[in-house]
Amino acid sequence: MKRKTGQDRAITSTWRPATQAIRGGTARSEYGETSEAIFLTSGYAYDCAGDAAARFAGEQVGMTYTRLQNPTVEMLEERIALLEGAEACRTMASGMAAMTAVLLCQLQTGDHVVAGRAAFGSCRWLTDTLLPKFGIETTIVDARDPQAFQDAVRPETKVFFFETPANPTMDVVDLAAVCAIARERGITSVVDNAFATPALQRPMEFGADVTAYSATKMMDGQGRVLAGAVCGTKDFIANVLLPFTRNTGPTLSAFNAWVVLKGLETLSLRIHRQSENSVKVGKFLEPRVPRILHPWLPSHPQHNLAMRQMDAAGPIFAFEVEGREQAHGLLDALELVDISNNIGDSRSLMTHPASTTHSSVSPEKRAEMGVGEGLLRLNVGLEDVDDVIDDLDRALTKVGL
To answer: Residue 245: which residues within 8 A CB-CB, separation 6 or more?
Structure first.
């Protein structure tokens, strides 16, 4: 491949994020295509047997198998790393593949994890159900309190794992404080940054070691494909994460990588507009509902912290009504906003976490996480915000709010 400046870190690292999102990592073939090419191939041919042996021995640069390398996937990995401000990135088939890999690649029997209480249901399944099967213990803490992390540390603690803002309760974690505790004790801090993306929040600037993503969400942003990503140092990605993914195979397809590359080109534009829309919708809802959890509204208990850490609100927030019956009634009354458990889409979507994304979590654990029967999570899209508000107004009125 003919490698242009999109692959030269000395140049691309000086570009501003909007430029990196469009040109970072670009590698053109001999045809000189302007849009990234999709390399739909599982394998690669060699000019001679010696080249094959040299590549497998790590003595020659080049592709060997798409489970390990693919030109389209590598372009995406370099672009995400640039946006994150990370040395390296490894993409995976889904967000949960990324979360599973980033934990299992560095943990073994006898290790201990400290994890935030508020998390996506499948992430809580990892910490509460999967890790214990391998003799790895987890202490769940209220991640809003940095002291809780410090108090939970044991000699065998290897990882801090948390989301901020958290799904779906919008808990905000003090990144600088928690990551400093981890650094002081030689613990790896892993931050799920999917709700914000590097367009709104860069955890590594606050001391995080590793960031993990469901790139299905805002990075694609249009509900098309599944993808995940993990960012960190070159040493972590190459020597800790890669051996795990090389041999377990949670590989991102070239086509999905290409779709996410196209999504990144408009990520900043989309997420900032959706952030503006979410604030307008949040201000409309606040006087109509019993409780709203929106980090960009002064009523959020961590409003000031969110504004220090994030560049904008993001499209997602939560609010509460009076129980499951009223929550389902409100969802059923919507005409524009879709009932969907997805987030980060350009379309407005709403779900009832207790009966969808967190239904596999026991009622006791849901209560611990703050996921009540009346909690609703809203992703505000790119529609005309007044149409979204009108739809919510009708639905709220119909259920007596």
So the answer is: 90, 92, 101, 105, 251
The number of folded domains in the chain is 2
Distance CA 8, CA 82 (A): 11
Give pLDDT tens digits for 140-193.
999 999 999 999 999 999 999 999 999 999 999 999 999 999 999 999 999 999
One domain, residues 119 and 66? yes
Going by the DSSP 8-state scheme, the letter that residue 2 receives in this structure is: B
Give the domain extent around 130: 5-265
Return the CATH number at 181.
3.40.640.10
Over the stretch 256-282, which tens digit does the pLDDT of each residue have? 999 999 999 999 999 999 999 999 999
Beta strands in 241-398 (DSSP E): 291-293, 316-320, 338-339, 349-351, 375-379
Q: What is the rounded CA–CA span in Å between residue 30 and residue 27?
A: 10
* Most distant CA atoms of the chain, gap in Å: 74
Q: Contact at 8 Å (CB) between 251 and 92?
A: yes
Whether the full predicted model's pTM is greater than 0.85, yes or no, is: yes
- Backbone dihedral angles phi then psi of residue 317, each to the nearest 5 degrees: -155, 175
Q: How far is CA 147 from CA 154, 199, 248, in A?
A: 14, 29, 36
Stretches where the chain sits below pLDDT 50 are: 1-2
